[in-house]
Amino acid sequence: MSSFTVLNVAKPFLREPITSSPNIVTAFVPHPKIVATSFNTRKRVFPLSCWKCNENLLSSYACSNEIDDEEEFIVVNFYRFVFIKDPEEEVSKHLSFMEGRDIHGRIYLSKQGINAQYSGPKKDSLAYVKWVREDCRFSGVLVQISSASNGHAFPRLKLRYKPSLVQARGISHLPLLDPLMRAAPLAPSEWRKKLEAVNNTNKSSHEKFNPSCILLDVRNGYEWDVGHFQGAQRPDVDCFRATSFGQSESEMIASDPLVAVDKDRTDILMYCTGGIRCDVYSAILRKQGFRRLYTLKGGVSHYLESEGSVGWVGNLFVFDARLSLLPSTYDPAVEIEASTIPEGSLDDSFAKCYICGSQVSELRHRNCANLDCNLLFLCCAGCVKHLRGCCSIQCTSARRLRPVLTGHQRYQKWHNYRDF
C-alpha cells in the first residue's frame, strides 16, 4: 500500500519554506495532470436524515446527466462531530477501504469526529460516502459534491488521526460533541432573511454596522479577499485562528468586532465555507458567555447552491486546486463574468492588490515566485510584471526563484524550475 504522507494544501497563507522533506507543509502543489481553468460546475448538497434516503439520492446522483461518466472526477466535502472511541483504529479501517481506490485529499479523524475533503473518480468517491454512511454515527451527515473538471483537486491522500479537526489554538478541550454548546444552525433560506434584515437595518440607520446584530466572517483574510457577505465583519489579521475572538478578555484587540458587544442581547451570525469552523468558534464564544449564536448550515457553498448569490459579493475561495469558484458554480442561474469583480462592489476594500493597493481585475490568488516565501496573495497585472511574480522587492533577489506563471497555472515542485 502506498504511503499517505502528503503535502498539505490547507495552509496557503503560511510563509513556510519548501524543502525536500516529505513531511513539510507547503502550499498548493498541484497534481501534474491538473491545469486550472474556470470551473462552471454545479455542487449538489444532500441534507439527509436516514440511510435509505442517502442511498437513493446517491444513486440518483450517480445516474444523473450532470456527471454521467464513472471516471469523471468530483470533489466531496463533509464533516461530523461525533464521539469516536478509538480514532486511530478508525483510521486503519478507512485506510483499508481506500485500498485500490483513486482518492486524493484530506480526511482527518479524532475522538470528536471526522472532517473530509477529497477528490476522485465518481465511482470511488461515492463508494466511500456510501461506506461511511453505513456507520450509524455518520448516517445523517451533510455531504456536498461538485465536479472537478480537470482531474484531482488535491495532490495526494492524507488520511490520519488529528487531535483537533480544525487548526486553531486552544480548542482540543472544547465540548464540541454537545450541540447546545455550538451555534444554532440556520437553513440557507433563514440565513437570507436574517442577512436582508441586517443590511436593511444598516441602511435605514445610516450606520455601517448594526450594534444589535453582528455578521461575523470566521474565515481567513485571503478567503475574504475574493468574496464575502455584504455587511460582514472580520478582524484585521491574515489568519482567523490568530484573533482574540472570545478566547481571553486580556487578548482583546481593537480590530475585534466583538469587543464591547452585549453578550446577552446581540445576535452573532457566523459563517464560513462549509460550516465546521463556525461550530468550533461558536463553542469558544459560548464558553465566553455569548448567548445568541447562529451559524449558516452547510456554509457559504450550501447557501450559494440554495439561494444563489443574494447578499454575496465576489467568488468563493476553496481549499483545493480550484482556489476560487464562481457563484454560478453552485447555482447556474447566477450570471457573472468568470473570476471578475462585480460592478458596483459594495465594499471599497474588496479585492485589492497586496502590493500596490489597486483593485485587481481577477479574483484569483497566486503564490510568490520566491519558493522560500510562497505567500498566497492577490496581485494586479502591473505588479506581477514589475516584481516578476514575487510579493515584495525583497523576494525578487531570493536564491530560489520560480518563473512567472501566466493564466491559472499553479506552481509544481522545485525540481521543475531548478535550471531556470
Q: What separation lies between the terminal Cα atoms?
A: 36 Å
- Which class best fits the helix and strand makeup? alpha/beta
- What's the CATH class of the largest domain, please? Alpha Beta
Helix content: 10-25%
* SS strand fraction: 15-25%
CATH architecture level-2 label of the largest domain? 3-Layer(aba) Sandwich
Oligomer: single chain
- The global form is globular
Largest sheet, strands/sense/barrel: 6 strands, mixed
Per CATH, the superfamily of the largest domain is Rhodanese-like domain
Sequence of secondary-structure elements: EHEHEEHEEEHEHEEHEHEEEEEH
Average the pLDDT over all residues and give the rounded result.
75
Q: Which strand order spans the largest sheet, edge to edge or round the barrel? A: 1-5-2-4-3-6
Q: Give Rg in angstroms.
A: 21 Å
CATH topology of the largest domain: Oxidized Rhodanese, domain 1
Brief characterization of the structure:
The protein is α/β, with parallel strands linked by helices. The chain is 21% helix and 16% strand. This is Rhodanese-like domain-containing protein 8, chloroplastic.
Report on this model:
This is Rhodanese-like domain-containing protein 8, chloroplastic. Residues 209-312 form the Rhodanese domain. InterPro entries: Rhodanese-like_dom, Rhodanese-like_dom_sf, Rhodanese_C, TrhO, TRHO_N. It comes from Capsicum annuum. A 6-stranded mixed beta sheet has the order 1-5-2-4-3-6, with helices on both faces. Strands 7-11-10-8 form a 4-stranded parallel beta sheet. It has 3 domains: 1-30 and 352-420, no CATH class; 44-161, Alpha-Beta Plaits, CATH 3.30.70; 179-329, Rhodanese-like domain (Oxidized Rhodanese, domain 1, 3-Layer(aba) Sandwich), CATH 3.40.250. Mean pLDDT is 75; it is low at 1-55, 62-67, 246-250 and 334-346. α1 (51-63) packs antiparallel against α3 (122-133) and α4 packs across α7 (299-307). 21% of the residues lie in helices and 16% in strands. The radius of gyration is 21 Å and the shape is globular. It has 8 helices and 16 strands. The chain has 420 residues and is of the alpha/beta class.
